[in-house]
Amino acid sequence: MSWKGFTKGVQRTPQQIKAKxxxxxxxxxxxYIDAERRFSELEKETKKLHDExxxxxxxxxxxxxxxxxxxxxxxxxxxxISGVMSDPETMKVEGNPEGIKxxxxxxxxxxxxxxxxxxxxxxxxxxxxxxxxxxxxxxRLIRKTATKRDxxxxxxxxxxATHKKLQEKKERTLKDEKALYAAENSVELATQEFNTYxxxxxxxxxxxxxxxxxxxxxxxxxxxxxxxxxxYTLHERMQSLNIPYFDLSNDIEAAFQKKRGDVQEQAEGLTxxxxxxxxxxxxxxxxxxxxxxxxxxxxxxxxxxxxAKPGMRRKTIDSFDTPPPAYQAVMTSSDNKLLTPGQxxxxxxxxxxxxxxxxxxxxxxxxxxKPKSLAVQAEKATAMxxxxxxxxxxxxxxxxxxxxxxxxxxxENEWWTGKLRGVTGQFPGNYVxxxx
Amino acid sequence: MSWAGFKxxxxxxxxxxMMKAGQIEKTSDRDYEVEERRFRAMxxxxxxxQKEAKGYLDALRAMTASQMRIAETIDTxxxxxxxxxxxxxxxxxxxxxxxxxxxxxxxxxxxxxxxxPISRFCAYFPDINECIKKRNHKLLDYDxxxxxxxxxxxxxxxxxxxxxxxxxxxQMAKEIYEALNEQLTTELPQLIDxxxxxxxxxxxxxxxxxxxxxxxxxxxxxxxxxxxxxDTREQYxxxxxxxxxxxVLQEIRDLSIAGAT
Lengths: 436, 261
Description:
The complex is a heterodimer of chains A (436) and B (261). Helix content of chain A is 63%, strand content 6%. With 436 residues, chain A is mostly helical. In chain A, strands 4-3-2-1-5 form a five-stranded antiparallel beta sheet. In chain A, strand 3 (415-420) and strand 4 form a beta hairpin. The longest helix of chain A is centred in the first third of the chain and has 72 residues, at 97-168. Chain A starts with a helix and ends with a strand. Chain B is mainly alpha-helical and 261 residues long. Chain B has a single domain, classed as Up-down Bundle (Substrate Binding Domain Of Dnak, Chain:A, Domain 2), CATH 1.20.1270. Chain B contains six helices and no strands. The longest helix of chain B is centred in the middle third of the chain and has 68 residues, at 87-154. Chain B is elongated and about 105 Å long. The mean pLDDT of chain B is 83. Chains A and B meet through helix 2, helix 3, helix 4, helix 5 and helix 6 of A and helix 2, helix 3, helix 4, helix 5 and helix 6 of B. Chain B: It comes from Terfezia boudieri ATCC MYA-4762. Chain B: Pfam families: BAR. Chain B: Its main location: cytoplasm. Chain B: Residues 17-237 form the BAR domain. Chain B: One of its GO terms (molecular function) is lipid binding.
């Protein structure tokens, strides 16, 4: 933007804002406003016409190239497929020679069609798209004039407002008089300019509309005939398509089904087509044997599981670092019992699921190897959590109770035996703290 | 990827590198390789077919959609002057009918007879490719086990049980590879042979649909002609219409609002 343009822009800004919020006096010329509306519409429609004819042109072209592409691809399908290209003997005649011939014929027809449509399509390009393009160019210029007129209107309103303000002043100083004189001049000039542009547009826009109609009529007629010709050529050429390979007489879908037969079922009977779903499972039988060694390992690993299982909460077994070897029988029950603290802490949920998930929760972190303070008689331990007896033989206690230890191991994650208030029973070692 | 899968991938990558270096012998099955190449050729052709079949439908739709919008535009231009000659209206109607009746009516058959069968055929490929991939992996596993056996034979291990164990594993690997290989080698040619009967009906259907479309489009378009002056056709052929367009365009340019002043 030039400096001059910039200053003008700045000068006009206040008035522009006023116009936007409809403050003060703003000129409104209903005739022009209507003409402008029509012009905007015309602008839009011309653009649409231009774009759409371009799209139309492209669509026809791509339709034809798709036809050609399709016939090329199908010819490739029909051709015998050899895995050894360099060896001509592998080109077995298992393809479809009639089909290939039909393809070639079809392709030829479409090629011809494309060739004969080319000038027609060319005409859309030169006679529709280009004129529309040129019209758009002119419309852009006219839009510029309209913008100029809007600017002049702003100037006109602006100067008028200044003038009015000065005139309304009760006591004018010498300076004001001077300014008033200048303002009068400006108003006169602005009025002149505004009127020139406004009148110009008002008289010429209708002319433009008239001409546009004049313009669109032959354009449309041309377009129509071009289209008609395109369709005529398409129709003609396709009608002349006389390939014995195709049975053109009957219904599309019925003929398709008839010709197709049960090929789809046949093809889908092949197992490799369902490899991801079925095939892989089928081949898994083999996998089992293959990994025999590994399987065996797994089995051995899982071996003791059934024994530990009666408690049906074998998950907790993982939290033991060394399952007490001597207590196989006790294990089963202790396995059971170990869960209960968790249950207590969460308010005795009976659902196995929640027991499992919370079983380890209140427990202290995994044990560190403790110095082996070999079972000293009358060793005491203080309960850190409540423990309610679950099965017969359990020793229940409340947090803070002091338990006399009867028997314990060096691992606090095991079940120890203790005595409290004359009762002897088992309890989880990690629920208590040694010492009283 | 699972940990087991990851281990396998790493392991197989090592085997491949060793094969390249000539450390491990590579099994090659010529029959299978021929079939795989044939399958690849067919896969490419079928995928192209799918693309073109869809392209035709898209182009057809784009064409009628453009026509409709052009018709609307023309109608707007004419509209202000009132539909004096009914041409634009009749054109619009013809185009709309073409879209609503011809295209929509052909859309279904085109999809059921052309697009869908071809897409279905192409949808088989991922499974087959998965199978081929698996087969290649199993082959690698087998080759690796075999190489291990060979090494043990040449340089016996301290553990006398190691060789029979490895041999057994190699045998297992061989069996599983051969099962997959066999499956592919027998079934790939079957599928390749089925391609023609499978896809051929679609070609005929496509041609028929095109024929019907062209015929209907032409007849619908031709109806509009009766609303036009008989001599416009002549004018068009002579290039008068274009001349007129140019002339009006010039007049528009000459307007002073167009910056001619």
